[in-house]
Amino acid sequence: MTRTEFDILCARHPGAVLSGPGELDAWKIGGKMFACFGHTDTRATNDDHAVVRCADGEMAKMLIETGTARKPAYFRGAWVRLDLADLDPEEAAHRIAVSYDTIRAGLTKKVQATLPPQET
Q1: Each residue's pLDDT tens digit, 10-62
Q2: Mind telling me which Gene3D superfamilies this protein's record contains (predicted)?
Q3: Distance between CA 95 and CA 65 in Å, rounded?
Q4: Which segments within 1-120 are labelled E, that is strand?
Q5: FRET partner for 76 with CA separation of 20 to 30 A, picked from 20, 56, 63, 64?
């Protein structure tokens, strides 16, 4: 999977906005990040992986233990690193959707009311 393909999957979600470029290129909903690409070197970007949120820490732990995901640098809890080269498009779509839904559900009701409706 390429960065462009991953971006297309993120952009499908209502209200998703790409911020960057900068220190961190991130997909956000309501101002909160649900997927990102980090720059580990100021001279070049690392578009070979993305970081997304799982519904909970147990799922993140299971994905890391099974080799589906890796522990991301600088993130704690329910965040996981996905290596794009090995990422199945269906798995990517699912992981992005879970991350988006989890972050969106955690937004305040006031912010949620300003967002486009979610597709069912």
Answers
A1: 999 999 999 876 667 899 999 999 999 865 544 444 568 999 999 999 999 99
A2: 3.90.1150.30
A3: 16
A4: 17-19, 24-29, 32-38, 49-53, 79-83
A5: 20
Strands 24-29 and 17-19: antiparallel
Sorted by sequence, the CB contacts under 8 Å of residue 17 that are 6+ apart come out as 27, 28, 29
Instruction: Give the predicted TM-score (pTM) of the model.
Output: 0.89
Cα distance between residue 11 and residue 108, in whole Å: 22
- Mean pLDDT over the full length of the chain: 89
